[in-house]
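seq as requested:
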Amino acid sequence: MKAQALMPRYPVPALNVPLTTEGRFVLGAMPGERFDLVVFYRGLHCPICAKYLLELERLAPEFATRGVQVIAVSSDDEERGKQMADKVKASAVKFAYGLSLKSAREWGLYISSSRGTTSIGIDEPTLFSEPGVFIVRPDGTLYYGAVQTMPFARPQFQDLLGAIDFAIAKDYPARGEYTAEV
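struct tokens:
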């Protein structure tokens, strides 16, 4: 397998996943005014994800004031997706579940295999995607992307808010767009 990163200023893969609150999230169908913040997380088994998503829920109103729609997505099944949404008391963040591993790969996410029961006593799924954070423009093109091979050292949401403020104020373009030979 050859991994390939998504390219800034180019369309991102499709994303059409069920929501824990009924209905579906279809990226681009009703985009945020300025951006969609798509946060892929490992799943209910990950205590670091829960802490990360609690911070996202806390800051979601700040993203909303900047015209940013926020969604958290995992490859968990419906029951586990709802449990994670309940765990972080989701009200401002939309939670989606059922991300296929094929779709995760299209987004450039890493896939891990189960190591059994985690430190919080929840079994890892047989296969699951590792974290990724993407900021997508309303036209469906990538503005920012970060993927991790492990649950540690993720982009901090407070930092992303500052970056979004800068991008809006300075009309700063997506970077990393160069595709010719080097």
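The mean pLDDT is 95.
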